[in-house]
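[User]
Um, tokens okay?
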Amino acid sequence: MTKAWLAIVALMGLGTSFSANAIHYVYTGNILTGAQFDTYVIPVQAGDFINATLVCDEVAPGDRPLDPVLSLFLPGVPATDVQNSAAYSDDQGNQACNAFRSSLILFRAQIAGQYTFRADGFGSAIGPYTLTIDTTPGSAAIPALSDYALMLLGLLVIGFGAHRLRARAA
């Protein structure tokens, strides 16, 4: 066997199994005063990947007044001060919120427990919002390396077969 084939065979045994146990949460709310914030608590397992977005909702066509701020707090940490957050997002999202942007947190949980998400408006910003949180087990967030190795092996076999057919035809 060539070195390339040995490397591919070695890669096929690596990786983790694919699991589709993602959990999807959707919450809606309305920040009515600059001092208000809402919290949402969800269970998270160690190794889970978290994808959380806080987007501003329309109050009239084209008017999304909330400048959303999203914070993530580890288990046991009170959500009363954003300085204690494990992750903080202001304007990292893709959706426009009038002159600002939505918020996005991508996070990998190191410990299991009840994680708190804090939906807030920047400064005195008010308005409705939607918070979406997706948790994905660590082994499911990234396709296993063995899947890529099998695809590569298939492409090499097809390429080798095509080469052999061309050699015979010549």
Notes: The helical segments are 3-12, 138-141, 145-169. Residues 1-18+144-170 form one domain. Residues 1-19, 140-145 have pLDDT under 50 and may be disordered. The first helix runs from residue 3 to 12.
